[in-house]
């Protein structure tokens, strides 16, 4: 089944403790992206990648890092999480810019 | 930066009613996408629009690419309880070219009363 898989689905962590949310897609898509969703703000793009080793900032990149060492994987790294990063995170992929992204099921992160 | 503004923010309707929502921007877009998010899930693409004036249907859903290229509309006919969810418009900002950049509106939350 074609899908975007992200893990974990739920995560509670403490301020300052580094964490990684994994994302993998099995559709051989060139483009991948991370979004966060907050009530009333819609989906805001954190980072995106156009191919292996090619990444760029979205609208809200502060406090996040990404890497794209392989085509199928695009992990999101929070080096020092803070409570304002409590949110619902989505990973997504697409085959080219003409098409919409296919989204994963989300990771609900709580930073206390 | 460029923004997409969706209206209304929320709707509470009776089953069987038709629904209309829109998405506007102060900037021109060359592509409009409409997504639906079911509770607890990621957004799913419903309709993609690529030309000004284009009208595209997907079952009971119909979306239009505004002729000014600054707006788009989504209509749902004869709503049913499973139409409940959040509807998002999205588009690549002007000048984003072939990058992965895609911005979303704030969403319209739809509730349907059986």
Can you describe what's shown?
- The complex is a heterodimer of chains A (112) and B (114).
- Chain A has 112 residues and is an all-beta fold.
- Helices cover 0% and strands 51% of the residues of chain A.
- In chain A, strands 2, 4, 5, 6, 9, 10 and 11 form a seven-stranded mixed β-sheet that branches.
- In chain A, a hairpin with a 3-residue loop joins strand 4 and strand 5 (42-51).
- The N and C termini of chain A lie far apart (36 Å).
- The model of chain A has no long low-confidence stretch (mean pLDDT 96).
- Chain B is mostly beta strands and 114 residues long.
- In chain B, 0% of the residues lie in helices and 49% in strands.
- Chain B has strands spanning 5-7, 10-14, 19-24, 32-37, 44-49, 55-58, 61-65, 71-76, 85-91, 103-104, 108-113.
- In chain B, strands 2, 4, 5, 9, 10 and 11 form a six-stranded mixed β-sheet that branches.
- In chain B, strand 4 (32-37) and strand 5 form a beta hairpin.
- The interface between A and B is medium-sized, with 31 and 29 residues.
């Amino acid at each position: 089944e074609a899908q975007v898989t992200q893990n974990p689905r739920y995560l509670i962590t403490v301020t300052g403790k580094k964490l990684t949310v994994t994302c993998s897609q099995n559709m051989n898509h060139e483009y991948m992206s991370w979004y966060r969703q907050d009530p009333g703000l819609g989906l805001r793009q954190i980072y995106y990648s156009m191919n292996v080793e090619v990444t760029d900032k979205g609208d809200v990149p502060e406090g996040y890092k990404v890497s794209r060492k392989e085509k199928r994987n695009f992990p999101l790294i929070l080096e020092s999480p803070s409570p304002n990063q409590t949110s619902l995170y989505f990973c997504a992929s697409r085959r080219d810019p003409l098409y919409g992204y296919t989204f994963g099921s989300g990771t609900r992160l709580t930073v206390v | 930066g460029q923004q997409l503004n969706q209206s209304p923010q929320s709707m509470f309707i009776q089953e069987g009613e038709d629904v209309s929502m829109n998405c506007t921007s102060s900037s021109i877009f060359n592509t409009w996408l409409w997504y639906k998010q079911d509770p607890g899930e990621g957004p799913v693409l419903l309709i993609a629009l690529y030309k000004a004036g284009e009208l595209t249907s997907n079952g009971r859903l119909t979306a239009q690419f505004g002729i000014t290229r600054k707006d788009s509309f989504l209509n749902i006919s004869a709503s049913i309880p499973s139409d409940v969810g959040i509807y998002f418009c999205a588009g690549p900002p002007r000048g984003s070219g072939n990058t992965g950049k895609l911005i979303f509106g704030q969403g319209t939350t739809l509730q349907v009363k059986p």
